[in-house]
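User: quick one
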Amino acid sequence: MSSVVKDTHHEEHPSGIMRWITTTNHKDIGTLYLWFAMIMFFIGGLMALVIRSELFQPGLQFVDPQFFNSMTTMHALVMIFGVVMPAFTGLANWMIPIMIGGPDMALPRMNNWSFWIMPFAFSMLLSTLWMDGGAPAGGWTLYPPLSLQTGDAFPFLIFAIHFMGLSSIMGAINIVATILNMRAPGMTLMKMPLFVWTWLITAFLLIAVMPVLAGGVTMLLTDKFFGTSFFNAAGGGDPVMFQHIFWFFGHPEVYILILPSFGVVSAIIPTFARKPLFGYSSMVYATASIAFLSFIVWAHHMFTVGMPLAGEVFFMFATMLIAVPTGVKVFNWVTTMWKGAMTFETPMLFAIGFIIMFTIGGFSGLMLAITPADFQYHDTYFVVAHFHYVLVPGSIFAIMAACYFWLPKWTGNMYSETLGKAHFWLSTFFVNLTFFPMHFVGLAGMPRRIPDYSLQFADYNMIASIGAFGFGFAQLIFLYLIIKTIKGGVKATDKVWEGAEGLEWTLSSPPPYHSFNTPPVIK
Amino acid sequence: MITRTYDGHEEYIISGNNSLSFHGSIIFISLISCISLFIALGFTIKGYWIILPFAGLEMIFLAVMLLYCCHNNSMYEKIQIFEDKVNISSKYRKNKGFFEVNKYWASLVLTKPKLRGHPHKLYVRYKGREMEIGVMLEDKERLELAEMLNTSFRKGINNEIF
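Assistant: Done. Structure below.
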């Protein structure tokens, strides 16, 4: 009896549209995720510009308050679930198998499914803009009873969230299986690049909290359509409990959005400082600590809800504790740069911008963690400034840094450094112009999620709106630069960056369709 | 990964790269299930039981997927070299193969890759039939295996790799 195993399919793949629909290749799926995130970034960005146009001056100018609230809700849902999460999943798809020396993701067919659910989910969500009663307008937090007043859009919103969650869970399971099962011989856990570590922990967080979100929104659905009273006070339910459920998911979600950024920055800083990362082990433990603490701080989002004093104090101190591992990370990045032979290519600029501005966002987070102070800041623009500093010059800058860092590897072509730097400086200037004044109007008492405001807030709002438009237009450079780099340019070397270390740089630029048909041996 | 043993006859076990053992998978699944179900049970006790089935389904899904990976990675090839015969048994997913050849008439064939950077291929040929071996090895290991098998096959006979 003979059994011959043929190995001829490796470099063959379909072309045209079917390549993208049926692909199980981690690079193709990574590319799909990244383009999806890019499209949603512009859609969510347009929503932000509607918001900022309306807030350019006091009074109602362009949209009615209902639509304004729809824009704030949809902007948040699109940016969180449609941009940051898919972009990081795209980066994970592209880089994790290469970084650990694997041939592909562990579950390639599921990988295809987890991507293609996303456009379906977001089509459902965006279709609500044209429905009777308008798109969801109760905020991305979906607090009842307000969210239960949503019109025809409500079930679409809930099912869209379910599909997004399903996609995230499938992606997370795939990443866990890949990292645990498919590491090359010798690639022990403590030899993995930080980006892989941060994604492993992020995937764990996703797996732990997604059922809570799924259960929470399903209970909203049954409250609205099936007569249950989980959150209906009239039926014996407790609307505040939804806030606990939501934030039990929501706070780890914040770390789901930021932990992979830490991994990206930890890859870029040593490359351009030409030094190994300072304190690798402490970085791993700090990431794990942040993940653990993220489960016990959720109620800091709801200090004003009327919790017992002991609860307020516990959540205040637990939240402050997060500053310790986060501080370890910032210290390690700065120490890595200390006395390094630094150069300032675009990825490095974005990484440094990330460290500085994420730290600003972290500090305003610490201010919000102080319970008595939070009673003043709660639901003001100070909170908006805080989380935008964490998410825009934090997560989004890290995604951009990653794109510039790995784009030559992905495409085989170098991008234009001049355009990249122009993109960085314009983005940095305008992002601060947009969000820094929000601290002031917030401290002065301007509430969030309002289409009109008192006259004393007019100047800073006008500045913020100008900044938002500037930031939006600056992103067109990013789009142009990516398309230009894909189409051609100076050929990139395999290593691309002089100080680059890691398995991804041992492959050709662009890498072969299947990365490591045989696992490399790690020393 | 090649494991070579001698117990009256030479035996080579060639298995794929699997960085998480079956036991490791069980421990991981147990750990994450405990955490996830602890959270879901907490909410269930407070009356918000709908979270529990979602958590349960997710854990089942995770377990199935990890065990599927373990199953996929349980591919192996076993080559037993006796005095006058060689038994090769293999398991790739559900396909089990068995190839018995006469040691003196079997030939070991190492083909060079057609494209640079592609792996070599190693076959055992016997009476017009062939079986590829060392499929899950990296190229360097495959060359080492070819060398080791060549020595083992040639014990008492002149059998060249060509």
